[in-house]
Design a protein that fits this description.
Structural class of chain B: mainly beta
Structural class of chain A: mainly beta
Shape of chain B: globular
Order of helices and strands of chain B: EEEEEEEEEEE
Distance between the termini of chain B: 37 Å
Strand content of chain A: over 45%
Number of strands of chain B: 11
Radius of gyration of chain A: 13 Å
Number of strands of chain A: 11
Largest interface: A-B, 20 and 22 residues
Order of helices and strands of chain A: EEEEEEEEEEE
Number of helices of chain A: 0
Helix content of chain B: under 10%
Largest sheet of chain A: 6 strands, mixed
Radius of gyration of chain B: 13 Å
Distance between the termini of chain A: 41 Å
Oligomer: heterodimer
């Protein structure tokens, strides 16, 4: 059974700092991995999707990497802003069309 | 484009009562999902519909939870009778056609069972 773990559970940083969020998964045979953002009282918003054949994806100040062999992914946020404060979730899709397995999330607070 | 709509946004009930949640997906989206998100955890898929047929309900506690998607559009999720451990946020999401396409999430319904 696939298990997804995110460390740390919570992170507080000053504005402008670069930061890394970590995601690990137990079964490396995945189809893709996604990073989501969740704001309080709102649903999830997809940030980045990395196919199993890819090593990384970039969108603006966000960069996600994937190392299937070690079962790890990282989300790098450059020059953090208070508006980045949210919970970040990673999720893996084991085979094409299968359900997503989510981690527990990292709650990020960026202080002005 | 209108997003995924859910109602109610909040609900408080006593244990053993019943409750129903409603979801209206994005127009044209064939796939609809219901997730349960317990505080401090990631979402867990309860049921996935493709049009009005069930694709995956393996994690749905069928002794108390039921869901339907009439006419392949709106969906309702019902809990009867509710237990304390059902306290969670229930998220509805939709996509064009299955997990291969981006999922769009609604704001969720926060259920508190006392």
């Amino acid at each position: 059974k696939q298990e997804v773990t995110q460390i740390p559970a919570a992170l507080s940083v000053p504005e402008g700092e670069n930061l890394v969020l970590n995601c690990s998964f137990t079964d490396s045979a995945i189809y893709n991995l996604q990073w989501f953002r969740q704001d309080p009282g709102k649903g999830l918003t997809s940030l980045l999707l990395i196919q199993s054949s890819q090593r990384e994806q970039t969108s603006g100040r966000l960069n996600a990497s994937l190392d299937k062999s070690s079962g790890r992914s990282t989300l790098y946020i450059a020059a953090s802003q208070p508006g980045d404060s949210a919970t970040y979730l990673c999720a893996v899709e084991e085979t094409s069309g299968s359900r997503l397995t989510f981690g527990e999330g990292t709650q990020l607070t960026v202080n002005p | 484009e209108a997003g995924v709509a859910q109602s109610p946004r909040y609900k408080i009930i006593e244990k053993r009562q019943s409750v129903a949640f409603w979801c209206n997906p994005i127009s044209g989206h064939a796939t609809l999902y219901w997730y349960q998100q317990i505080l401090g955890q990631g979402p867990k898929l309860l049921i996935q519909f493709q049009n009005n047929g069930v694709v995956d309900d393996s994690q749905l506690p069928k002794d108390r939870f039921s869901a339907e998607r009439l006419k392949g559009v709106d969906s309702t999720l019902k809990i009867q009778p509710a237990k304390l451990e059902d306290s969670a946020v229930y998220l509805c999401a939709s996509s064009l056609l299955g997990f291969a396409y981006e999922q769009y999430f609604g704001p969720g319904t926060r259920l508190t069972v006392t």
